[in-house]
Amino acid sequence: MKCADGCPSRSIPIGDKMGKDGVKKWMLKVNSGYEYWARVGTDCGICMAICPFSRSNNTFHNMVCMVLAYAPVAAALLKNKFSQYQAQIDP
Fold first, then answer.
1. What is the tens place of the pLDDT at every residue in 61-71?
2. I want to staple 3 with a disulfide (CB 3.0 to 4.6 A). Which of 22, 47, 60, 70 is the partner?
3. Dihedrals phi, psi of 42, to nearest 5 degrees
4. Cβ contact 12:47 at 8 Å
5. Would residue 10 be called left, alpha or beta, if left means φ above 0 and alpha means ψ between -120 and 50 degrees?
6. The pTM is what?
7. Measured at the alpha carbon of residue 1, what is the angle toward residues 22 and 53, in degrees to the nearest 5?
C-alpha cells in the first residue's frame, strides 16, 4: 500500500485488514504516529498526500466509480477491493 510504504513512523500496517467492532480495516499504530510527531515537532500527513483514495477528482477515482456504477459484473468482482467507493454509489 502506497500510504503504508510512505509512512515515516510505520504507523500504518502493511498487510491484511483486522476486524474491530464488526468492521475490517487497517488498525493504525496511533502511539507511534504521535511519537513521530513529537520528535519532528509537527504532524505529518504524508499518507494523505500520497494516497490515491484521498483525492476524489482524479482519473483512477473516476474510473473506479464509473466501473462500479455501470458494470455490475465488474462491480461484484471488485466490491471487496474498492469497498470504500460503494457508499458513494449506493442510493
1. 778 777 777 88
2. 47
3. -160, 170
4. yes
5. left
6. 0.52
7. 75
